[in-house]
Amino acid sequence: MSDLPPERISTAATLRLERKHPLAIRWMHWINFPILFLMILSGIRIYWNDSDNDHLHAHAVYRVGVGSFTLFRIFPESVWNALHIPWHVTEGMGDHFFFMWLFAINGVAYVLFTLLSGEWRFLVPTRGSLREAGRILFPSITLRKASPSIHKYNGAQRIAYSTVILMGAGSLITGLAIYKPTQLHYVTTLLGGYEWARWEHFWLTIGFCLFFLVHVAQVAFAGWNNFQSMISGVEIRPVGEPSIEQERRSWR
Amino acid sequence: MSENESKPASESTDARIRAASRKQTRRSFTLATLAAAAGYGLYRWIEAGPKIGMQPAALRRAIQANAAVSRALFDERALAPTYPVERAEHLRINGLIGLKQALLPESWRLQVVGVANEASFPQYVPDVTTWKYAYSRGSESTEGDHFTFIPPEPVINRLDPILASSQDHSHPYEEAGQSKSALPAGTPGLLLTLDDIAKLPTHELVTEFKCVEGWSQIAQWSGIRMLDFLEAFPPAKKPDGTLPRYVYMETPNGDYYVGYDMAVCRHPQTLLVTHMAGQPLTQLHGAPLRLHTPTKYGYKQIKRIGLIAYTDTKPDDYWTKLGYDWYAGL
Fold first, then answer.
1. Considering its fold, how many domains does chain A have in total?
2. What is the mean pLDDT of chain B?
């Protein structure tokens, strides 16, 4: 994808094209999207097997209840059926234990890229991120109105995007602890044992779903220019705004 | 696009920038659409391909590659954590394949095939397959789909729902059918009694049993180590001096069957179980002899073993045919 270096644009312009997202980050972001979707779908298909015969499965993670009494389920029977979950356990396992490799490789590549390229500086929360996030979240839920946008990402985004990377790492570690609880029993024990590792793994999944909902809503509020930049890499910005590319150059 | 000279320079420059952006966006979205279509096509191609054991071939190969990675990394060396006996629970009864009729204990023998110098053992017979197991209900004519078993002992752990669900044919429950590793008539081997096995040292183990369905329970097992069994009844070496790579086990009626790597049977926590929670095994827990190994899911921990065969051919495996992992290593 070609780019127009900002310095070649006439100074008389009030707009410029900002190189916002590096090519590698765009590819890894969009590769992750269907893979994470498949991991969640296949994971739920596997998890379903434990929610079957609920009165026998005291450890069912997405069930709130005491003994044989079930107060509440995240996934009631109707949801299972609507999503075509029941009786797809082996399909779930086939997908899960294949796409886990792509999920892991893509995630590790992303972390390595952000570290080596310096892009991590845009992502890791800074001292003011929490306060900034509070200002953004409470006066208004939209990014556009409240975002001071001095950096590539505001405080709320820094916290959210860093957290979701940590969640990905958490899914890999808790997943390994469930997958190989005998050979890697130190890991499983550190996570509180097999049942806790499952609990953590499954609730991280709910975390990804919540992240997805908020992320999509925020992107919708932020508008087309912002969204298309995650695909094209460039975003139209007023000349007066601080330059992301300039900040990148300042690291070198 | 045409430039209007009468407009300020910045406006036309901005228009150029917008146009450049639009072009870039169009090009990127085209590429993204192609990539998405290619990705989706690849996924459909994998899912729609020929199947091996009810898994798309590519995914089955991935499962086997995962097993190869596990074998290379771990080689079944780690010992599973053990627990104080107070934490042991009554293990849930799950899975009745191969157990649907009550076996008469006096009719039980363990067929062992592939033992070194087998003819020198007093338990040697020229054809183990002629041994007749006897059941307390019905004869061979009723040995079919119908559940004819009536538990002879008080049943722990809410058995009824399991019986009900095992008869509920509204579920698309599949059966794996006959084992390809079943012994041909005329196979020589040993016929062991429980006394022959009980001569080996007894071991106690409190470990966490894990079902592939997702649940787990800590249970107390006692029996003899498979490792000791392999010493007492060693596999015959191949002509090149190495040991056969696999062990195959099945229930007396052959309905349930499992294949293992030899390494699993050499794991010190792999037990031929005779007692659970300090009591002799019940029929539904696989009396008189079942397998426990914390290195595998429950579906590899066969109940009511009727045959142990050492083999160099990868044995057939009940649940592998239905889409599950042959290796199933924890």
1. 1
2. 86
Contact B80 A98 (CB under 8 A): no
Identify the pLDDT of residue B162.
43
Q: What SS3 class is residue B38?
A: helix
Beta strands in chain B (DSSP E): 51-52, 55-56, 110-113, 124-125, 189-192, 202-210, 216-225, 246-250, 257-261, 271-276, 279-280, 290-292, 307-311
pLDDT tens per residue, range B95-128: 888 888 889 999 999 999 999 999 999 999 999 9
Distances (CA, A) of B48 to A14, A103, B1, B321: 53, 22, 48, 18
Give the C-alpha separation, B87 to A194, whole Å.
Answer: 15
For the ranges A42-51, A213-222, B133-142, the lowest mean pLDDT is seen at B133-142
Residue A247 lies inside a defined structural domain of this protein: yes
- The residue type at B285: H
The answer to whether A31 and A103 have CB atoms below 8 angstroms apart is no
3-class DSSP string for A193-218 = CHHHHHHHHHHHHHHHHHHHHHHHHH
Evaluate whether residue A4 is within a structural domain: no
Please tell me which of the candidates B20, B32, B58 has its beta carbon nearest to residue A4. Answer: B20
Tell me what pLDDT residue B143 has. Answer: 38
Q: How many other CB atoms are found less than 10 A from the CB of residue B322?
A: 18
- CA gap A14, B11 in Å, rounded: 8
So what's the architecture of B74-322 in CATH? Alpha-Beta Complex (3.90)
So what's the pLDDT on residue B10?
Answer: 64
Mapped to the 3 state alphabet, what secondary structure does A131-167 carry?
HHHHHHHCCCCCHHHHCCCCCCCCHHHHHHHHHHHHH
* Contact assignment for B62 to A97 by CB distance below 8 Å: yes
- Say which CATH number the domain at A226 has: 1.20.950.20
Q: How far is it, in rounded angstroms, from Cα B192 to Cα B51?
A: 39
Mean pLDDT of B307-317: 95
Evaluate whether A4 touches B20 at the Cβ level (below 8 Å).
yes
**pLDDT score for B142:** 38
Flag whether pLDDT at B195 surpasses 50.
yes
Question: Percent of chain A, pLDDT > 90?
Answer: 49
Q: Which residue has the tokens 């590659």?
A: B65
Q: What span, in angstroms and rounded, lies between the C-alpha atoms of B141 and B79?
A: 45
Which residue of A lies nearest to B29 if distances are taken between CA atoms? A231
Give the domain extent around A94.
Answer: 14-251
- In this structure, are residues B235 and B116 in contact, taking their beta carbons and an 8 Å threshold? yes
- Chain A, 24 to 53: residues with Cβ < 8 Å from chain B are 30, 34, 38, 46-47, 49-50, 52-53
Do residues A188 and A194 touch, judged by C-beta distance below 8 A? yes
pLDDT band at A146 (very low <50, low <70, confident <90, very high): very low
B7-16 average pLDDT score: 73
Cβ separation of B81 and A180 shorter than 8 Å? no
In a domain, A8, yes or no: no
**ipTM of the complex as predicted:** 0.84
Look at A31-40, A177-186, B91-100, B293-302 and tell me which has the smallest mean pLDDT: B91-100
The answer, for A144 touching chain B at a CB cutoff of 8 Å, is: no
